[in-house]
Amino acid sequence: MATNFKRVRDIIADYKANKQPNIIRQMSTCTTMDDYVYGDHQNRRKGQYSSVSTALGLLKILQWRFTNFEHLYDVVRAIFMTSGHASAYLSIYDTALRIGYNHAEPILPSKYVYLYKSVGTSPSPRQGAINLYGQPWVDKYMDKDYRQRIKTRWFSKKFPNMESWEIESILCIYAKYFYLNMPY
Asked: Which parts of the chain fold into alpha helices (H)?
């Protein structure tokens, strides 16, 4: 991966060439509940959320009909929040994304970019947004509820024709390469 990015479009090009194919492969090869919860890139121990895995397994068995990604996210969040694990919050979005991607009719985020925080020094989409747009911008456009998200349309100038989940991935993976007012 290059590290001397001058423009946002350079980062987007690197993402599409080097990262996006692996992310799609990881999302499309989920076969067990652990795959949905942990994925390939999660630095979590398998079985850490065994009660969550069980509940998510029930969701799949019951073939819930989700109306949109926000509905799916809220259900996954409710399950994770009952797990009692402080770090469960970090897995909500990724788990909902993997489940939605593998749904009979894919359910992916389209209205919002979710900007969760990370723990420690791990990159996060929120830090990427802060680095690129500044804290006041993030504070202004961030939903004021628990979802920690910003409408996708506010990202359209820097990320034209991109899906919400792609923007989230780029902001997370490349967080440290963004700088304030980086040109498109």
From this structure: 8-14, 20-28, 33-38, 50-62, 69-81, 92-101, 125-133, 135-141, 164-173
